[in-house]
Hints:
4-stranded mixed β-sheet; single chain
Amino acid sequence: MLSAVCVGETMAMLTPAQAVPLHMASELHCGIGGAESNVAMGLAAMGLETHWVSRVGHDGFGTRILNDLRDHGVGVTGVEVDADRPTGLYVKVPAQESDPDGGSSVLYYRQGSAASAMGPDTLSNPAVSSLLDNASLIHLSGITAALSPDCLSLLEELLTAPRDGRLISFDVNWRAALWAGQDRAVLQRLANLADVVLVGKDEAEHAFGTTDEAELRRLMPEPGVLVIKNEAISAIALDKAGTREEVPALSVAVVEPVGAGDSFAAGYLSGLLYGLGQKESLRRGHVAAACTLTVHGDRGPLPPADELAAILDSSDDAWAAIHVEDGHFNTTRSVTP
């Protein structure tokens, strides 16, 4: 059976229960958030056996994270519980009506977290090594590299180990606050060790100093495929042989963008694991991202299997006519068969 292992930090997330500034909030909603666990839940929703490897604190937030992941069908046998270090925490402040262009903001409290203590020793955990040995895909991100020197060493060890038929994907996931005062060249080095690299065009300027796809491919010549997410316009796959595939994004009534990139990654990577081509895999990514963009929170439910299959198999004209709102996929104009 195909299986995926996602490695990285997940934090507890607090956000005002109403869309008010943090200093005016009397209630905070508790959830969880983490790029790699978002991808894990997305892959599980796509029907893959999926596991998450990380560390959490011996606290209520850590328990909440483990329970949520189990509830979404993600295995957590590779998670270590730290009796001394806390689970990381972040506070998400919603966008304000008084500043509609300001977007939401995030406050991180993750320094010294349990997950920041991950390192090469994590791989000596028998549960972790067993999961990795049997994985079809190992998914990593640039976030982990910035958490601590030990976390960076963990990624380096994973990326330089013999593949033995496994695929390793690396999502750049640029976070400016994490890389302040650090050498961003690390990201290029790590990306070049992966088989599949995903990066948003908006992230590429910060992480690699360019948004030009030819230059990005020159900077990262080693991965089998480089996927550039061109915001609401399209997604582009550039393989090592020079083949380029571009699939336009779906028309979406955006509610909140948080988590959409992780959903895209899960959709795209699931396509690769199922042996689909680049076009079909990119479409799966767009559909998963659209489901998340149209709901509050980091993940949106996928359409029923028969509806999903029909969407993915639609003609190019029919694809261009799809509009997504409140998680529903509708045709916005008549299409000639």
